[in-house]
Automatic annotation (TrEMBL):
Annotated DUF1731 domain residues: 253-299
Coiled-coil stretches: none
Species this chain originates from: Vreelandella lutescens
Protein name: Epimerase
NCBIfam families: yfcH (TIGR01777)
NAD-dependent epimerase/dehydratase domain boundaries: 3-219
Family: Belongs to the NAD(P)-dependent epimerase/dehydratase family. SDR39U1 subfamily.
PANTHER family per record: EPIMERASE FAMILY PROTEIN SDR39U1, SUGAR NUCLEOTIDE EPIMERASE RELATED
Length: 300
């Protein structure tokens, strides 16, 4: 199978490329700077600067993971626009590739797995959240809703669309743990605010396996929560991480400090959703790391 990936040089994308190459698939990667990302990706990846550049070698599947980090900068009006544009534009490039293939009479991909995030649901308090839960209207939801909407036109062309609403991705060397581990290793970690907010999380290997599962299962379409079946509160997360590191977690960060430091973006740290992967579980997907203690034991 030939798989075209946007965001292939990212934390999840790199691992996905590795797994696909290991299984004998052809991997195509879209990057604005092919020469800079080549060293991050396995040998054999075909890296080009736009999705349209692959019109001569039509992919069998699309995986859309590109997007600027939502937590990289404070959410100014300009930054919000950049966050939306980075996701929508890359998605529209894949739509344009499909339109060009269709116009040329070339075969279209059979499936598109397109990224979204747990932010789609917004702040849900303590209630259990599955794919049918109505969202809470806030910026994170509107960002994800526009990202998902940008992928919808492929369905009219007969391409199966699966959307993955991704939780906090855990693995060594990046993702959620990259900034958390240093203070926790020094015994300076602690909960955010009162710690009651939920943190849907997923081990990177499980997320990559779920993406490949969605590529390969021809009956699966629509939205899927890409998170482990046992989410935890922030207090439980910090306690479990500290236990794995054999360190205390006695330095909570007050909500007022986070709000002062991050502004509206502090919502990412102080609110959450008890998000469950109901549709993946119903489809028979098995998580290698269903619980946080098992995932962290493998990572740290």
């Amino acid at each position: 199978m030939r798989v075209l990936i946007t965001g292939g040089s990212g934390f999840v994308g790199q691992r996905l490329c590795q797994q696909l190459i290991a299984q004998g698939h052809e991997v195509q990667v879209v990057s604005r700077t092919p020469h800079e990302v080549r060293g991050k990706l396995p040998k054999g990846c075909d890296i080009r600067d736009s999705a349209q550049a692959f019109v001569d070698t039509p992919p069998d599947a699309l995986v859309n993971l590109a997007g600027e980090s939502i937590a990289a900068k404070r959410w100014s009006t300009e930054q919000k626009e950049r966050l939306i544009r980075s996701r929508v534009t890359s998605t529209q490039q894949l739509i344009a590739l499909c339109e060009q293939l269709e116009a040329n009479g070339q075969p279209l991909p059979s499936v598109m797995v397109s990224g979204s995030a747990m932010g789609y649901y917004g702040d849900q308090g303590s209630k259990v959240v599955d794919e049918s839960t109505p969202p809470h209207d806030e910026f994170a939801h509107r960002l994800c809703a526009q990202w998902e909407a940008a992928a919808k036109p492929v369905e009219a062309m007969g391409v199966r669309l699966a959307i993955v609403r991704i939780g906090l991705v855990l693995a060594a060397g990046g993702g959620t743990l990259q900034k958390m581990l240093p203070p926790f290793k020094l015994g300076l970690g602690g909960r955010f605010g009162d710690g009651t907010q939920f943190m849907p999380w997923v081990h990177r290997d499980d997320l990559v396996a779920a993406i490949m599962f969605l590529i390969n299962e021809p009956t699966l379409s629509g939205a899927f929560n890409g998170s482990a079946p046992h989410p935890v509160t922030n207090a439980e997360f910090t306690k479990t991480l500290a236990k794995q590191l054999h360190r205390p977690a006695i330095f909570p960060v007050p909500a007022i400090v986070l709000k002062a430091g991050f502004g509206e973006m502090s919502q990412l740290l102080l609110t959450g959703a008890d998000m469950r992967p109901a549709r993946l579980s119903e489809a028979g997907f098995d998580f290698q790391y269903p619980t946080l203690d098992k995932a962290l034991a493998a990572i740290v």
